[in-house]
# Entry
Amino acid sequence: MQKKLIKLVNDFPWYFLIAVISAEIGAILLILQYKQVAFFANQVMYIGKKFDSVTGILIGIVAAVFIRGIFQFFSDWFSQKMAVQIKSKLRRDLIKKATRVPFHTIQQRSVFQTLMVDGVEALDRYFSQYVPQILISIFVPISILLFVFPLDELTGWVLLLTAPLIPVFMVLIGRYSKVVTERQWTKLNRMSHFFIDSIRGIKTLLLFNQGENQVHRIKKVSEDYYEVTMKVLQIAFLSAFFLEFVSTLSTAVVAVEIGLRLLYGRLGFEEAFFILLIAPEFYLPLRNLGLRFHAGMNGVEAAKNIFAFLEQGEPRNNSFFLNQKFDWNGFKNIRFNNISVIYPESKQKVLNSASFNIPIGKSTAIIGPSGAGKSTVFQTLLRFINPVAGVVSLDDLSISEIDIDYWRKQIGWIPQKPYLYNGTLLENLKLGNPDVNFQQINQVLAQTFLRDFVARLPYGLETKLSDIGTQISSGQRQRIAIARVLLRDCQLLLFDELSASLDPIVEEQILNNLKEFSKNKTLVSIAHRLHTITSSDEIIVLNEGKVNAAGNHQFLQSHSDLYGEFLKTYFGVMA
Ligand SMILES: Nc1ncnc2c1ncn2[C@@H]1O[C@H](COP(=O)(O)OP(=O)(O)OP(=O)(O)O)[C@@H](O)[C@H]1O
Ligand SMILES: [Mg+2]
# Structure
C-alpha cells in the first residue's frame, strides 16, 4: 500500500525534493550554528576573551537562526503544497471513477462520500508530514554523525547504536495500532452511512414516531466511533511518551559519558559543549517520525479504501467507435441475448436469461408486474450495470465494444424518479445539450406545459432549483425531465413510467409531442398506459426476470395468455 502512496509523490517530485533539501539545509545550518555557539561559549566563558572580540560570531549565530527559519518555512510550505496537490489529484480520480462505476445502493454512496471528505483528508498529514519526515529522519542524523565522528568517536558510536531504538519501537507499536485504525475506519463508514440514511428518511421516520429512537441509534453509533477514536489517541499518546522517554534517556547517556570525560580532561570544553547541544537534535527527527507515524498510519488505512475504490472493475470501455460517426440506421435490432443481471450485494438474478429484440427506429413497450426487471433493462442499456451473462448488442456488435461516453450520448433517458441537480432551471434543461438556444428552450417549455411554471419562478429560468427544491411537484419534475430529453440530440429514448405523475389533462398532448420527437428514433417505454402499449410496434412481456412473450398487440392477443391477463387486470379490457 505504501508503495502506491509513494508513487503519488512521484507526480510532484519537485515539491518533495525542495521540501526535503530545505529541511536538510536547515539541519546543516543548525549544526553550524551550534558549532558557533560552542566556539563562542568556549571563547567567552572558558578562555575568558572579551565580549567585543567575538561579536562577529554572535552576528553569525543570529543570521543562522534567521536563515534556518526561512528554510524551515520552505520545507513546510512545499510539503504542504505537495499534499494539497496529491489530495486534489485523488479527489479528481475519485470523481472520475464515480462517473464510471454507478452506485446501486446508498451504502456505496456513503462510502464514496466518506472517501471524498475524510478519506482524502486523512492523507494530508501522511504526505505533508510523514513522508518528508522519513527522508529527513535518515539524512539529518547522518549529517550530524558526519560532524560528530571526527570530533569524538565514542559519542558517534553511542548515537549510532541508540538511534535504532526508536524505529524498532515504532514498528512494534505500528502492528497494534494498525488493527485499531482499521476498526476506526469501519466505524466511521458506518456512522456516516447511518447519518445520511436518517437524514434522507427523516420525514418517514417522523411520521412513524421514530424520531426519538433514531436519535438514540445515532448516538449509539457515534459513541462507538468515539470509543475507538479514543483508543487510537491512547496509543498515540502512549507512544509519544515512550518516544520522549527513549530519546531523553539516550541524550542522558551521551551527557554522562561526555561529562565524565570532560571532568577527567579527556575532552575539550568546546567539543563537549557542541556535542551536548547537538545530541537532542540527533534524536529529534526520529522522534518526530514516531509521532507522525500515527498520522501516517491513519492515512494508509484511508488510502487502502481509496485505492480499493479506484481499482474496482468498471464496465468495459473500448474506444472502438470513439469519435466515429455512428449510423443507427445501419442496424436492425438491439438484441438482448440470454441476459442475466445481478445487482451487487444481492444474489438474485433480476434478469434471468432474458432474450428479446428492440427494433431500431421503432417503438417498443416493456410491460410486466412490479419488480419484473423492467427498469433493470434500462440500467443495462445505459450500462450502469454489466450483465453477469449474455451480450447486449446492436445486431452483432456488442455494445460493450462501443465507447461508453459515446454510447450514452445517444441516449435520452427519463428515469422513474427524475433527478434535478443543484443548479438553475436553465442549467438543468441544458444538461443533455449545452448548445441549445433560447428559441428551442421556449419551444420545448411550451411542449411540456412548463411556461406558466417558469413564469411564476422568481428568476424565471435562472432560478436556482435548490432554492425552490421542495416546491417542485413530481409532475413538474417529470415535465422538466421530459423537456431535458426533448432538447437532447439522441437516438435511443428510454422512458420509464413516463405518465406516472403527469396530469391527465396535459398528458395526451405531451405524449403526442414526444411521439413526434421520437419519430425515426428508437423508443423503449416502460408503459402502463393502454394506448402506449397497444400502439407500440413491439411489446415485451417481462415476468420475474424472464421474457414471457414478445410481439405486437395483435400477435400477443392471440398468442399470449399472460398478455391478455395483464390487460384485463390492469385496464379491465378483454384482449
Ligand atoms: N439497486 C438495486 N440493488 C439490488 N436490487 C435491486 C436494485 N434495483 C432493483 N433491484 C431489484 O431488482 C428487481 C427488479 O427491479 P426493477 O427496478 O427492474 O423492477 P421494475 O420491473 O422496474 O419494477 P417497478 O414496476 O416497480 O418499477 C426487484 O426485485 C428489485 O428489488
Ligand atoms: Mg421500474
